[in-house]
Design brief:
α1 (about 25-35) packs parallel to α2 (about 50-60). The chain is α/β, with parallel strands linked by helices. About 30% of the residues lie in helices and about 25% in strands. The longest helix has 13 residues, at about 235-245. The strands form seven sheets. Strands 2-15-17-16 form a four-stranded mixed beta sheet. The protein has two domains: about 5-20 and about 230-430, Enolpyruvate transferase domain (UDP-n-acetylglucosamine1-carboxyvinyl-transferase, Chain), CATH 3.65.10.10; about 25-230, Alpha-beta prism (UDP-n-acetylglucosamine1-carboxyvinyl-transferase, Chain). A hairpin with a 6-residue loop joins β16 and β17 (about 290-295).
Length: about 425
């Protein structure tokens, strides 16, 4: 476990950054490329622990992939040609890998065991296991947690399933299983969630139909290899957007950031708080749209964020809490109970760790009350803890930039899950 002394009370963040490739899109490109006929070229893929977990799982079933700098070529093979793995598929810390692969591999005629690290093994999988069970896949797991074993499947059948909670991962798992099922699968969600799976299947030659809140999946396992351009991850860009807004004397430009509408909740919420973020060089010709984003230091206002806002900004809520500590007035966040079952209980962790730095945050069952206009300072050397959660670790490093005093981050290595170059990029933009 690595402790890292954080930069505090800096005089500005300035410059240009190209943030790493989108993690959600990278996972999906590897999975779909693995079952497509031919070679799929994935440009700008995120090289991180989580994406390596997906690549490793597919390799364990006979799929070959080659790295060429920041690109990967995946040599696809049909779903029916995947090989029985000789050991458990190690998901590391990746919830996305776990849930989506459980859908992708739901129809395999051999047993598959999924395992993960201590953090991932605490996260509930019932939301995926239950509907996949209705389709004909059966899992053996204690308390619906990892390790989980899928017993050999005798075929899947389509279902009409209503998602109890908006979740892109569960939706995607059911889409991937539905492609292999007999008959039509209809997934009804309470709210729109990120649509990377649907967009990418289109690039592989498969059309998923949306009718209102219904997603309609007709069976087909014929995917055609393609080239996928992975844009910069807006969830990674969000750390710099917040830094640019709250650190004095700042101006940052983030290049080629994904601006898919189902992921830009962070931009819309910051705009409601009064932020002006400019967008240039927009590219939207098929696949995923992206643009350059520029942000400067600005004053923010407290707002009310409710359950309708959360699905398109769920990963960025910890950062919004940090921004809210510097806003004028209070910010109330409700409908975010999903945060209890992330890499950590993010409601508890965000509240505890930011309050160590002088913030005034109240944890609620489904969110937060953040009392704004609160300077961050520590009277004596203080250690904050990522608790093994990559997004918490990076958020605390951004919080330290506006904190007076000496701050150390425990378990700093957690950031490598999604952004291995984060601290190098941080040093690059901190003004001397």
């Amino acid at each position: 476990m690595t402790d890292r002394k954080l930069q505090t009370a800096v005089q500005g963040v300035r410059g240009r950054l190209e943030v790493p490739g989108d993690k959600s899109i990278s996972h999906r490109a590897v999975m779909l490329g693995s079952i497509a006929d031919g070679d799929t070229y994935i440009k700008g893929i995120l090289d991180s622990d989580d994406v390596r977990s997906t690549l490793g799982a597919m390799a364990d079933m006979g799929v070959e992939a080659e790295w060429h700098d920041q690109d990967v070529i995946v040599h696809g093979r049909p779903l029916t040609a995947l090989e029985e793995p000789s050991h458990a598929l190690n998901m590391g810390n990746s919830g996305t890998s776990t849930r989506l692969l459980m859908g992708l591999l739901a129809n395999q005629p051999f047993p598959i065991t999924y395992s993960g690290d201590a953090s991932l093994s605490t996260r509930p999988l019932g939301r995926v296991i239950d509907p996949l069970g209705k389709m004909g896949a059966r899992y053996v797991a204690t308390n619906q947690r990892l390790p989980a074993t899928k017993v050999p499947t005798q075929g899947l059948h389509g279902i009409h399933y209503r998602l109890p909670v908006a979740s892109a991962q569960v939706k995607s798992a059911l889409i991937l299983a539905g492609l292999q099922a007999e008959g039509q699968t209809v997934i009804t969600g309470p709210l729109a969630t990120r649509d990377h799976t649907e967009r990418m299947l289109q690039q592989f030659g498969v059309t998923i139909t949306r009718d209102g809140q219904d997603i309609i999946v007709n069976p087909t396992t014929k995917l055609h290899a393609t080239t996928i351009q992975v844009p910069g991850d807006i969830s990674s860009a969000a750390f710099w957007l917040i830094a640019g807004l709250i650190v004095p004397n700042s101006q940052l430009t983030l290049t080629k950031v994904g601006i898919n509408d189902t992921r830009t909740g962070i931009l819309r919420l910051l705009q409601r708080m009064g932020a002006v973020i400019t967008m240039a060089n927009v590219v939207a010709d098929g696949g995923e749209p992206y643009a350059d984003l520029t942000v400067t230091t600005q004053g923010l206002q407290g707002i009310h964020i409710n359950g309708d806002d959360v699905p398109t900004a769920v990963d960025e809520i910890p950062l919004l809490v940090l921004a809210a500590t510097q806003a004028l007035g209070d910010t109330v966040i409700t409908g975010a109970q999903e945060l209890h079952v992330k890499e950590t209980d993010r409601i508890a962790t965000v509240t505890t760790q930011l309050n160590k730095l002088g913030a005034n945050i109240e944890a609620r069952e489904d969110g937060f009350v953040v009392h704004g206009g609160t300077p961050l300072r520590v009277a004596e050397p203080t250690t904050v803890d990522s608790c093994g959660d990559h997004r918490i670790g990076m958020m605390l490093a951004i919080a330290a930039l506006i904190t007076d005093g000496e701050v150390t981050l425990a378990k700093a290595e957690a950031v490598s899950v999604s952004y291995p170059s984060f601290f190098a990029d941080l040093e690059r933009v901190v003004a001397e």
